Amino acid sequence: xxxxxxxxxxxxxxxxxxxxxxxxxxxxxxxxxxxxxxxxxxxxxxxxxxxxxxxxxxxxxxxxxxxxxxxxxxxxxxxxxxxxxxxxxxxxxxxxxxxxxxxxxxxxxxxxxxxxxxxxxxxxxxxxxxxxxxxxxxxxxxxxxxxxxxxxxxxxxxxxxxxxxxxxxxxxxxxxxxxxxxxxxxxxxxxxxxxxxxxxxxxxxxxxxxxxxxxxxxxxxxxxxxxxxxxxxxxxxxxxxxxxxxxxxxxxxxxxxxxxxxxxxxxxxxxxxxxxxxxxxxxxxxxxxxxxxxxxxxxxxxxxxxxxxxxxxxxxxxxxxxxxxxxxxxxxxxxxxxxxxxxxxxxxxxxxxxxxxxxxxxxxxxxxxxxxxxxxxxxxxxxxxxxxxxxxxxxxxxxxxxxxxxxxxxxxxxxxxxxxxxxxxxxxxxxxxxxxxxxxxxxxxxxxxxx
Length: 451
Ligand code: PFF
Known about the structure:
Elements: H1 14-25, H2 28-40, H3 44-72, H4 76-86, H5 94-126, H6 134-145, H7 148-167, H8 174-197, H9 202-211, H10 220-234, H11 240-245, H12 254-282, H13 293-304, H14 308-342, H15 346-366, H16 381-408, H17 411-418, H18 422-447
The chain binds 4-fluoro-L-phenylalanine.
């Protein structure tokens, strides 16, 4: 029989859960990653594939993953053991939970380095380090990432803050932070979009780059990146939303809350794109210039507008906070497992998992400068970790979650947990049993050159 409550606590309300899960979804993925991978993959067609993946694959799997978490009420590893016993299935399913724990720590190792860049930019904005000149702005960015000391410093600071929040548990602080964070972030993004409208390149270049699909621009790898990003941005496939679902009160509708969260996440990403691409074109920059894209464009806006330093500080503070609410969910599966299985206190569990992640993060920081020549499969440590997690581990994890929810769990248990009207349940069931896993499978076959 499934537990009715998690030993780690429970969200105080439906709204609290929506805030926390939105906090996990909205992060660097929306504001930093979405624009630069869109730029690297030619724009509109890539965006369309990404949106299609969110709808047909991401949302059904998000419902499945949350549902499994709430039924199991434990860390993803133990939830998968419990649920496979309940379904009379093979116990090896719990290895899926392990893959998630590892993926979470790998992602956090580079996520924290990028969050460190954003932290450094808070200070730069405050001391008037931004200008309206694209070359000067680029020089500021290049100087930052060339400095191993600065990157390690900011990465360390970000990891310390993450660990200290995680130690306090899911209810302390997190709910309050997100409640203020999301609306303010939204307003600031609107302000940036409004600024982008004044650049003269808004409709014909910026918006058309983002929304006019040209399918000749994308290949199998771009489709894999778009699909991987759908998992990454929603925080799926590694147990983050499963662990958040395990703290979800029993009477909350999982499907409805998932739609809100996915909707908010998508809107934030599109707004970020609408703010950034007009600036890219108005300043003669390269859309495909890589992970530095937002750091080389947004400061131009802040450097040119009135009171820009203040908006700049606020924006980067919010970006760091948005990253923080995501990093907490990246490490929570590991922490919950250490508490449940090793009898660690939350404090000890957070320190142990945080320190491992921090060490790996140092290698990532070096991969932008002194170790930039170290390459495997032609990828730096950062590129490799990003590819491995977002393009492979999360989609594989998501595929297995879809199979588990669609084929392994007893229909009756799934129905109980979701309590959806019959028609809606049928639609979800088709999406999660067929559409999502088959699509992921086909994309993999395509990238391998088999299909
Ligand atoms: N969704 C987060 C973002 O878009 O920045 C990143 C993330 C969080 C990925 C949680 C994976 C995850 F499990």
